[in-house]
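Hi Y.,

Following your request, here is the sequence exactly as I used it, all 159 residues.
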Amino acid sequence: MSGAQVTPAVVPIPSGGGLSALWATKLPFVPCLIPLGLSPVAAGFPSPAADYEDRRLDVSEYLIRNPVSTFFFRVSGDSMVDAEIFDGDMLVVDRSVTPQHGHIVVAFLRGERLVKRLEKRGERVVLCSANQAYPDFEVRSGDELAVWGVVVGKFKRFL
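Below is the corresponding structure, written out as C-alpha cells. Let me know if you'd prefer a different format.
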C-alpha cells in the first residue's frame, strides 16, 4: 500500500462576490485515492486468486482526462442499452475530444439533448440509438446539429 499522504490545501473563499467570485476561485485538485484490487473480479466462475490491494486508484484521474472540459450527465431512458448505457447511469462527457465516427456523443438536435452514437454514412450524419426499439436521427438539410461533447466514461451507484 502506498504511504503517500495528501493534505488538502485551504483556499480562502472571497467575500462579497457571490457565486461568481466563488466560481472564479481556483480550487486545488485533491485526489481521492481508493484501494485497487490486484486482479480483475470474475464475472463468470470464481477465481481463487489473491484479491487484496497494494496500490490506489484515483477515480477522478481514471475517469477525467481534462477536468476543465469534463461534465457529468445523468442518463434518462433506455435508447442506448446495447452500448451498455442504462437509465440512471452517470455519463462522463469531455468537450475537448474531437467527435469522430463511432463515438458516443451528447448532441443537440431539433431542440433535444440526446446521447447517441455519431455515424457518418457517406455525406450523411446520423445519430444512432443503441436499442432497436428506438429510431436513429438522420441530420437533415436545415437541421442544426451541435455535438456538445464525447462520452468518455460512465458510472453508476447501486445503493
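The chain has a mean pLDDT of 82.

Thanks again,
Q.
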